[in-house]
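Narrative of activities, Objective 1.

The group set out to show that a structural description can be obtained from nothing but a protein's sequence at a throughput compatible with the screening campaign. Below is one input-output pair from the validation batch, recorded exactly as produced.
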Amino acid sequence: MPEQDARERAHNFREVNLGFDAVVAEKEAQRCLACADPKCVHACPVGVKVREVVNLVLQGEYLQAAAKLREDNVLPAVTGRVCPQETQCEGACILAKRFSPLAIGHIERFVADYERQIGQVGLPEPAPPTGKRVAIIGSGPAGLSCAGDLVLKGHAATVFEALHEIGGVLVYGIPEFRLPKEIVRNEIANLCRMGVEFQTNIVVGKTLTVDELFNEHGYDAVFIATGAGLPKFMNIPGEHLGGVYSANEFLTRVNLMKAYDPQHYDSPVYDCSGRDVAVIGGGNTAMDAVRCAVRLGAKNAHIIYRRSEAEMPARAEELHHAKHEGVRFMMLQSPVEFIGNEHGYLTAVKLVRMALGEPDESGRRRPTPVSGSEFDLPVDVAVIAIGTGANPLVQSTTPDLQTNKWGYIVADERTMRTTKRGVFAGGDIVSGSATVILAMGAGRSAARSIHEYLVSGMW
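Output recorded for this entry:
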């Protein structure tokens, strides 16, 4: 994949990966073995017909390839950029046994970008209207995927979004240099053309409730796709200090509130320019935050992770890019205290060195503190990126909706049905934090189940 030079991209928010051109895309497509039983399709959470898409690329039929993609994936330009193909479709590719797998994600991005640039988007034809109406709570990947499939089945789908912009984590969480927001807006516009209706600034659980969607607004079914947006903290001294952020807040201020564009937006984000920044965590969100800090002018940008690099859950590509952009990795270390000055602002983080012991429930070796190894690292900004939990708003205002001990909604793994008649749930609000494509897969499963319910009336 061609990409911006690291020395240049570390100072801008333009997209890092530049995409394949037609020549490279066709050469890559020639590597496909055209398996009789394509395991890549089985490994795709939304079931993209990879072999058929690749075959159309080989024929130079790029618009047809894009249309074939859209039969199963309503956000191909998005997933072509942020989907972890290496653990899914590409991970199942037969080529990977001896060589590098077919670059399915890069091909997907190419055809999706091609149709957008040509201006001829091949949207699937919806079925005749059924008269049934479905309310979808949340406009992230699960909600968008469910809405797209429902309108194709002839049902009216309305997506309710709490924020002022549609896209959920795609707009507030993933930085511009990984996923340009214009790409997201384009895919949203395509969903609008398909017939999906969007309502912003509607906080279900506050503005209205699930019961009101049924009783006062006349919806026949509800799909809850609110994600897992409640930030987790470390519960150590000093987390209240100025300059200490959750990753959710930091990335929302940078991405949705456009702190990355100070010439045009006066966003309230603590100035990283010339400062020392520490991001705690080892996942993709931590990589997003620390790479934003680099671009905001951080003097030193650190990743602090309590395990070794081998245990980091972040994508290999994100690690590669972060290293080339100058991020400093501090492995086997964990914060025990944030230290501030008399004005209440962060000045340092106290770290303890860790040693890896026996594997824990995640299968990774459990980190344990090394006695007497504490030391202070001077920092001005700290971002805590250790995961998220379930936002309880919808659940707390829907008393007959069962949740588990972590606050996630209980839903059948296959049908996405909850304990409340007519209410379905899927994505991170059921599974916990996962990937964009897994959330989309849950959305597709929910759409199939909702359709069956609307047609049969059986619960």
